[in-house]
Specification:
341 residues; alpha/beta; CBS-domain; Spore Coat Polysaccharide Biosynthesis Protein SpsA, Chain A; three-stranded mixed beta sheet; 8 helices
């Protein structure tokens, strides 16, 4: 709400907002100058203000806010845990560019997200003959929309989507992202660039850390926990990994030079597979060759050789790579029971 409005106007707006009743007061340049709640109005009326007085007289002049590009996730968690539910997002000039609501969102992570959506989807033909795989519906929404919604729940609002096969359909469907309160930019691959090569062409990331994900994954991953683990371990590159347990139905012998030195009766072994979701320090992107075919696994191998810190983040939640027809059918069956909360 702009300054200069009457208290009566503010009451109308607060009544409309109901349980999320807080207004942020801005000047003509949309610069934040204060906030206003039902309690501020009550105190103003008790102190002699009338409903025709202007709101400027009763606002709180030091409201809580988050700066766009804020890197301190602990500040955001502190706001949430202290029940500051509605927080304005300001640009560098102090102008309100967004408002987040922790009743609807889980966090506000300081990362850019890149979604790889250029694949042909050969194994899902004929479904993908005329529709790109990311636009195939799982339940009532396309696969890619499930991904965007999950990322948006954690406050991520700056997206790049890499496109190739039938990419114009994806761009037409999602547009700029404005109607979803996010910003989407698109990068078309003239030639296939692998699972990470396209990142070499993006130069205007907002944040110091990049979240990269395949577009054909259905998951309820806690992205905040993933990000906090990445920070805690001071990693350069973190890989979401999917645990697989293999049960051996026989005793396994350990031998050395033909001699049995030990055995395990019907052991179980747990292995970790690449889950196609990564967190990457922006400075690491210089190791990706420009505009060349390059996979995430190529980058992992290179970083390990360079003694960079590459870590595994074992996922405890739901994860499904929708690459085959049987996976697509499973996703349709699972979507009603997955806990996305």
């Amino acid at each position: 709400m702009q300054k200069g409005n009457t208290i009566f106007n503010a009451l109308e707006r607060l009544n409309f907002l109901a349980k999320d009743a807080i207004l942020f007061i801005v000047d003509e340049q949309n610069t934040l100058i204060g906030s206003l709640t039902d309690g501020d109005v009550r105190r103003g009326l008790l102190n002699g203000c009338g409903v025709n007085n202007i709101v400027d007289e009763i606002i709180q002049k030091s409201p809580k806010f988050i700066k766009k590009g804020e890197r301190d996730i602990s500040k955001i968690i502190e706001f949430r845990e202290n029940n500051f539910r509605i927080i304005p997002i300001l640009d560098k000039e102090g102008r309100v560019v967004n408002v987040i609501n922790f009743r609807e969102m889980k966090s506000y992570l300081p990362v850019d997200a890149v979604i790889m959506a250029g694949g042909r989807g050969e194994r899902l033909r004929p479904l993908t003959d005329n529709t790109p795989k990311p636009l195939l519906n799982i339940g009532l929404k396309p696969i890619l929309e499930h991904n965007l919604c999950r990322l948006r729940q954690f406050g991520i609002d700056d997206f790049w989507i890499t496109l190739k096969y039938l990419g114009n359909q994806i761009e037409d469907y999602f547009g700029s992202g404005k109607d979803r309160d996010i910003n989407i930019q698109y990068l078309y691959e003239e030639e296939p660039l692998g699972t990470i090569g396209a990142l070499s062409k993006i130069k205007n990331f907002e944040y110091e850390n990049i979240l990269l994900t395949n577009s054909d994954i259905l998951t309820n991953i806690d992205y905040e926990h993933f990000f906090l683990d990445f920070l805690k371990q001071d990693a350069d590159f973190s890989i979401v990994t999917i645990p697989y347990t293999v049960d051996i139905p026989y005793a396994v012998l350990e031998t050395h030079n033909g001699h049995v030195i030990n055995f395990r009766e019907k052991p179980s072994y747990t292995y970790y597979s690449n889950g196609g979701i990564y967190l990457i320090k922006k400075e690491i992107l210089k190791n990706i060759p420009y505009n060349s075919f390059y996979n995430a696994t190529d980058l992992m191998e290179n970083l390990i050789k360079l003694k960079k810190k590459v870590i595994s983040y074992p996922l405890a939640g739901y994860w499904l790579d929708i690459g085959r027809m049987e996976d697509y059918i499973k996703a349709q069956n699972d979507i009603e029971t997955i806990n996305f909360k």
